[in-house]
Amino acid sequence: MSFVRLIVFLMAIFISFSSFVYAQSGKGTDMENTLYLDLESGRVVIEMRPDLAPSHVNRIKELVREGFYDGIVFHRVIERFMAQTGDPTGTGAGGSGKNLDAEFSSEKHVRGSVSMARAQNPNSADSQFFIVYDDAPWLDNQYTLWGKVVEGMEHVDAIKKGVGSGGAVNDPDSIIKMQLAVDIKD
Known about the structure:
alpha+beta, Cyclophilin, 8-stranded antiparallel sheet, about 20% helix
């Protein structure tokens, strides 16, 4: 009887180890739609949602592959609401120069949702995006939601918060690097 328990125990260890290796290899993840956002405090992993916003996800991928987001600051950060980035000028008025048509969906803006910032015109999203800290139902069907933080939300929580209702940040934190998981070479 103890020999059978030993075999079962060893099989359980082997299965656990195999699962760990599989997960670490990234094969259990959609690498093409996994985005790594590296901050000073650590890595944030974003699952992109081309099923919700295919044009926006494709544009984000283009910009990431160009290195567009590397070094860009979080220019607007409002505690218990969101952290916004993606403006190369750091003012909130800049972008990549290519507006996208809205791709609104019924997906809810919950903690960790990643959505496009825009001006008053619904079709004015460009390169700026935000990550919400708490559920924000007033954003639902008003902003293009294109992803969700699946790991590292504590690093988003650690981003320096802005002052006042506008959320402008003195000495803002910046994105060290953004990259697609599929593009990382071992």
